[in-house]
Each structure stands twice: as C-alpha cells, then as structure tokens.
Specification:
Keywords: Signal, TPR repeat. GO terms for molecular function: serine-type endopeptidase activity. It comes from Accumulibacter regalis. By secondary structure, the chain is of the alpha+beta class. Among the domains are: 180 residues, Beta Barrel (Thrombin, subunit H), CATH 2.40.10.120; 87 residues, Tetratricopeptide repeat domain (Serine Threonine Protein Phosphatase 5, Tetratricopeptide repeat); 103 residues, Tetratricopeptide repeat domain (Serine Threonine Protein Phosphatase 5, Tetratricopeptide repeat, Alpha Horseshoe). The chain is 57% helix and 13% strand. The strands form two sheets. The chain has a six-stranded antiparallel barrel with strand order 1-2-3-6-5-4. Strand 5 and strand 6 form a beta hairpin. Helix 18 packs antiparallel against helix 19 and helix 22 packs antiparallel against helix 23.
C-alpha cells in the first residue's frame, strides 16, 4: 500500500525524533503542572440569582488580580473565583474588548502570581495548557507551539495542546513554568489547533481599556439589547455606530445579528458581508453569512462560502458543522454525514454537530447511530427535554421498546405532563403489548399539544386496530389523514381497517384512489385483490393480485391469496402452478395451501 507524500513526511519526521532521543524539556509536565496549578483558578459566571451560568478559567497575575477571556465575563451579573478556603467575589477592573482580555480584581485572593514570559515562544516549543476544562477542575494537557500567526493585525500563539469549554482564560505555560499566553477556546479554530493571546498583552490591558471606554459602553448596550430581544433598537444602535465608525467590523456584526433575529435575511447578508470586508476571514461573520444564504435557499453559495473558510480554518469544528447543515439542506446526506463526522473528530463535545448527525441518522433510518449519539447528548444535557424525545424516537425506531419507554419516562420525570413524553410512552407501551395503558397515555398526549399530533393519532389508531376495535381505529385514522404530512400512510391504514371491519366498498374506494396515484405500488394492488376476494369477485381479485406480484414477486402472502382465488374460480391448473411457486418462497404457507386447496383435487382423481 502506498502512502501519500504527507504521510511519508510525517513518518520521516517521527523517525528523526526517535533517533534523536527524547526532546529536551526543562522539567517534566508533572513537575511544571505542580508548579503552576495554584496560579490557575476556576472562575464562575453567575446570574442575578447567584446561579452558575458558565465555568471558566483565570490566571493569577498579581496581588488580588487575575486575567481571563473577556467576552463571557464583561457585563456578567456576578463573578466568583474558587479559592482554597472559600469562594472569592471578583469584578472586572479593566476590559480590553479588542483583544478579548479582562483583568479582574479579587480581594483577598491567596497564592503566588504567574511568572510572565518576556517574549513569544518559538514554533515547536513544548507548552502546557492548564485550565478548568468542562468545569471539572484545573487540569493539564500538553502540546507544542505550531506557529505564531498574524490574525486581524495581531500576533497569536497557535498551539496543539487540547482544550475544551471552560479552558478559556486559562494559562499556556512553557517548560520552565512561565506564562506564555492566555488560552482562547475555539474562538479561531478547532480542538487540536488552538490559540492563546500572548502574555505580553497582559501589561497593556489597563492602558488599552482606558482608550476603549466608549467601545466598551457601546458593547454593553448592544449585549443588553440582545439579552432583552430588543432587535429593532439593537439594529438602530449598530447602524449609528457603523455610520460613525465606518471601519468597525463589530458594528456591522451586531447589525447582522439584529437583522437575523428579525428574519430579515437579505439585510443580515449585507451586514455580514460588510463585517467581513473589515475583518477578512472572521469565522463568526463567515458562518453568519452562510446562515443568511441558507435561509434564502441559496445553498450552493452558502456551501462555497463555508468551504472558503476551510482554506484558513480547516481545523475549526464550527465550519465543518455548518457544512454538514448545508449538505443536509441540499439533500446530500452522505456528504453531510462526512462533514459532521469531521466536526465531531475535531471536537467530540461539539453538541451542535452531534445533534445534527443524530437527527440525520434517524432520518436515514440508521437507528444504531441515532441511538448512540442521542445517548451521548442526553448524558451531556440531562435536563434537555428535546433530547429525551429524540432518544425515545430513535430507540423506538430501533425496536428497542423497553429503552424507548425508559427514555419517555425520563422525560416525564422532568415534565410530568409533557405531551411528547406521553406520546412516546404510549407508542412504546403499545409495541410492548400493554395496550390499555398505551391508550391512556396517547389520549393524554392528544389532550396536550404534542409536536406531531399526527403521530399520536396514528399510534392510537394502530393500538385500537391491534385490539380489533375497528370503529375506534377507523375514527383515529380519519383524524390522522387530516395531516398532509402523513395522509398517504393514514389512508392506507384506514383502508385496511375498513376492509377488516367488513366495510369493503369504502375500503375499495380508498384503494382505487390510491392506485390512480401510485400505479406501481404493489401494496395498493394487493389490497384491491384482498377486498375483491372478500367480496367474492374472484376474477377481479386474480387480476389485481397478479399485478401486485408482477411488481414484487416475493410476496408469499399474495401468492397464497392468489391460489385461494384460483381455487374459488375453479381453475385447478392455475392452483397447481401457483402452489409450485409458493413452495419456492414459503414452505409453511405452501404446505397449508396444499392441505386446503390441492388435496381435494388429488383425492378426486
């Protein structure tokens, strides 16, 4: 097997490293982590009621002062730093909104400050990322400096040390335990190509923040208007700034956000374009532009724009997620699955990509994949009702009815009267043969407001049908056929219920109408055959059953029905011919047919 040149180059590089022995490292990662762990703190963002909204990281850089990433703390109702003895209240002292760095004052904060590196690290240098990843407490990962990149006119440290949500604001340390950067989480790229703001910027925060007072106040107003969903006012605020500060990409970005929230997709597209003119390559604006195009059903343009982002941001999980969404909208399921798989490879905790991939799997009837992904999502977000609904649906599709019932019960534990929880509980109970309980649950679901009432009516109708309660089943199917999305399936089931209830003329009318729409569907022809056979119209039954078998010759039940109709028509040679064919498909049916229909002919000879 030949390897691509890139792989050969990688193997050569590995061989050189191995031949050269282990890389020089001033101290082991364990030693460095023990040295610096006390300098990195768990930072909690609080709401007005004191509840934790987000878990982040911060680095001690002076007496009673820490540095962190700014966008999630500036303007927060409350901030709390976890310390050895007791939590400490923190407040924003200086905010450099351009570089996304904040200094926080934390009175009484114990512990030594970090030692700041004096310059940028060299490419290839070993680094440790220390942060509160996933809110699990301060931990460490290691990697190397990939490069020093210039982005938006600023030089950032690109590194390969894995980071996760919660790591932002943590420290990137060199092999001597010096702070070389403040971690950013996926603001610019993906899991294994991450960025840090140089530590040298920390000394400039206060001075730069003083010069950005007007910008910070403007941003505070924009964030407040967004939080209160006052979109028209936000649009006006952003428009005024875009006129006053023409080169500010943020003004155009907020104008795009406000336009998007109001459903004005052409205006959102124009604003995102202007933001990108002023900040070329900005991923957030680029993704916004793709969304605007998607919502105008310009999928090819959206895909082209998203693929342009990959030129510089190939490791950005958000871009791959967007490509997956676009491919879903384009009806390209395999391409969507590949893009979403790449998004999840880059960031296994990317719940947006997981949710799209799980939904895509369910739509493709790939039940095992759907179940696996929705299980992961419910573990990550156990209070998310929608995820339990979708897990129940996937497990029901996989015919794992006990687990579908368990998922529905979990949802009902969160919200006892949730109509969708009751729907899937009823569907699972019916499949498990607990049909009276199913009827109670499904009636309760319909009394609420399930997201898909047609599914509740169909499940209720199927349950009544299984109990041979044909009048109730027919009434429920008639309710289901009112919904265009499932009308065909509801009418097919209604026809069967009418036939089994002895309402042959009504059943035949439905199936004849279906035949006009679906002349190549063997189901329709066989049902017409069954109804005519029940009415004693043997020749009409024979013609319909033969047509059904012409379309699908592997229907053992239809061959058996055709044999019965030939017998009723007094055509013994055809009975023998069909029996021979039935014997090839289903020996059990063939033996029963022989006893019932062929043996009398043989005895009469």
């Amino acid at each position: 097997m030949s390897l691509p040149l890139r792989s050969l180059a990688l193997l050569s590089a590995v061989a050189v490293l191995l031949s050269a022995g282990p890389p020089a490292f001033a101290a082991s990662p364990q030693t460095v982590f023990e040295q610096v762990a006390g300098q990195v703190r768990e930072l909690e963002v609080l709401d007005a009621a004191g509840q934790v909204l987000a878990a982040l990281s911060a680095v001690t850089i002076g007496e009673a002062q820490v540095v962190t990433q700014c966008d999630l703390v500036d303007g927060a109702a409350g901030l709390r730093l976890r310390a050895e003895a007791s939590p400490r209240v923190a407040r924003v002292a200086h905010a450099d909104v351009r570089r996304n760095l904040c200094l926080l004052d934390v009175p009484g904060l114990p512990g030594p400050p970090a030692v700041l590196a004096t310059g940028l690290p060299a490419a290839g240098a070993r680094v440790l990322a220390v942060g509160n990843a996933l809110g699990l407490g301060v931990g460490v990962s290691d990697g190397v400096v990939a490069a020093i990149r210039e982005i938006g006119g600023e030089r950032l440290i690109q590194h390969t040390a894995p980071v996760a949500p919660g790591s932002q604001g943590g420290g990137l340390f060199d092999d001597g335990g010096r702070l070389v950067g403040v971690i950013r989480y996926r603001k610019l790229a993906g899991q294994n190509v991450n960025f840090a703001a140089p530590a040298a910027w920390i000394a400039e925060i206060a001075e730069r923040a003083a010069a950005q007072g007007e910008l910070r106040e403007w941003r505070r107003q924009a964030v407040a208007l967004e939080g209160e969903a006052r979109w028209a006012e936000l649009a006006a605020l952003a428009a005024r700034r875009s006129e006053r500060v023409a080169d500010d990409p943020e003004a155009w970005f907020w104008l795009a956000v406000a336009s998007e929230a109001q459903g004005d997709w052409p205006a959102a597209e124009r604003a995102y374009r202007q933001a990108l003119v002023r900040a070329p390559g900005d991923v957030t604006s680029g993704l916004g532009l793709a969304r605007a195009r998607i919502n105008q059903e310009r999928f090819d343009e959206a895909l082209a724009g998203a693929r342009e982002l990959l030129a510089s941001q190939r490791e950005d999980t958000r871009v791959w997620t967007m490509i997956g969404w676009i491919e879903i909208r384009r009806g390209q399921a395999p391409a969507a699955a590949d893009a979403l798989a790449e998004a999840m490879r880059l960031a296994p905790w990317n719940t947006g990509a997981q949710h799209l991939a799980a939904t895509l799997a369910v739509n493709r009837r790939d039940w095992p994949t759907g179940v696996r992904l929705f299980r992961q999502l419910t573990r990550a977000e156990p209070a998310n009702a929608l995820l339990w609904i979708q897990l129940a649906e996937a497990q029901y599709g996989a015919q794992d009815y006990e687990r579908a019932l368990a998922a529905a019960e979990q949802l009902l534990a969160l919200s006892p009267e949730h109509a969708d929880g009751l729907l899937w509980k009823g569907a699972a109970l019916s499949a498990l043969g607990r049909r009276q309980e199913a009827i109670e649950a499904l009636r309760a679901a319909l009394a609420g407001a399930p997201a898909s009432p047609v599914l509740a009516w169909l499940a209720l109708a199927n349950t009544y049908y299984a109990l041979r309660l044909f009048p109730e089943a027919i009434a429920a199917y008639r309710q289901a056929e009112k919904f265009a999305s499932h009308r065909e399936a509801a009418q097919d089931s209604l026809g069967i219920a009418l036939k089994d209830a002895g309402q042959f003329d009504a059943a035949l009318q439905l199936f004849e109408a279906a035949k006009a729409k679906r002349p190549e569907d063997p189901f329709v022809w066989r049902q017409i055959g069954f109804v005519n056979a029940a009415l004693g119209r043997s020749e009409l039954a024979i013609a319909a059953l033969e047509q059904s078998l012409k379309l699908d010759a592997k229907q053992a039940k239809v061959w058996h029905a055709l044999l019965e109709s030939y017998h009723a028509a007094g055509r013994p040679d055809d009975v023998r011919r069909v029996h021979a064919r039935l014997l090839e498909l289903d020996r059990v049916h063939a033996e029963q047919a022989y006893r019932d229909y062929l043996l009398p002919y043989e005895s009469a000879r």
